[in-house]
Design brief:
Number of strands: 11
CATH topology of the largest domain: Rossmann fold
Radius of gyration: 23 Å
Shape: elongated
Strand order of the largest sheet: 7-6-8-9-10-11
CATH class of the largest domain: Alpha Beta
CATH superfamily of the largest domain: Response regulator
Largest sheet: 6 strands, mixed
Length: about 325
Amino acid sequence: MTRVTIAGLAAQLKLSKASVSYALNGQPGVSDETRRRVLDLAADLGWHPSASARALSRSRTDAIGIVLRRDPSLLGAEPFYMSLLAGVESVLAETDQALMLRMVGTGVGQDLDTYRRWSAQGRVDGVMLFDISVNDPRPALLDQLGLDFVVHGNRAQVAPGRVLLYDARGDSALIIGDLARLGHRRVLHITGPLEFEHEDDRRAAIEGEAFARGISTVFAASDYSSDAGERIVVETLAADTAITAVVTSNDMLALGAAAGFDRLGRRDVALVSWDDSLVCRLGSRPITALARFPEEQGRRSTRMLLDALAGVPSEVTTAKPSELVVRSTSIPAP
């Protein structure tokens, strides 16, 4: 079903988008007759439940929510999320709004229970989603609950108009392009869990970019931990000596991969991390990485969610493009 938008309502009613927004959100600036026309048409066309519910029956909480399926004790070890949350908070501070953050572990359904509880208690106006999985139940549940949301992801079709879009193909072109320039012809890509759509997209993008340049690829899935990065590198490079470069899906995996090189006595293998952080910048061999600007992505997604809550279209719905930061681990193939 096509999502009903403010622009669509405005076109049908021959009103400005601002007038429709005022009417839907119970704000002054329109007559009672105009407000009635807007609300009647919105109800007839199935206007997004959270927007109509707020306009018709519920006060704002001035809070947004984030539920992370992560072990709380490990969050501090993931610099990407810490930087992204800093960006979220910077925008909320400007608008005097609050962030509710919950880390629920990896148990099945715990995040869904949190959304249901927040909705029943009227705790948040909207939420932000990360790590979209194949056939993820969260977008449909949030629509059912009437909670606005914004997704961090690679696929616009997950929730049309509500996805901050990242460019997995563009990122892969930067990574593989540099490795090709350095003469590498066989690459190990250590992904995160392939249940996540973004990891599946990254794998496909790396494979496609490598194939186009005559480079063969080997893939291994992981849990994002440094221990996994070290173990996979030691096992895979010992069995496949043709591999001359390793790409990891985050900085902690890259740290583990570097430790694996040391165990094997290999100083001739290139290494690229999909995430940049202090982990990559420090040490005796700083690691080449993609600068993905997580703080800016946090700001952009928060503005998108606040725009949705206000009933106005967002000007920016794409993530800031990544940049490859070349460091000591960008070495030519032997």
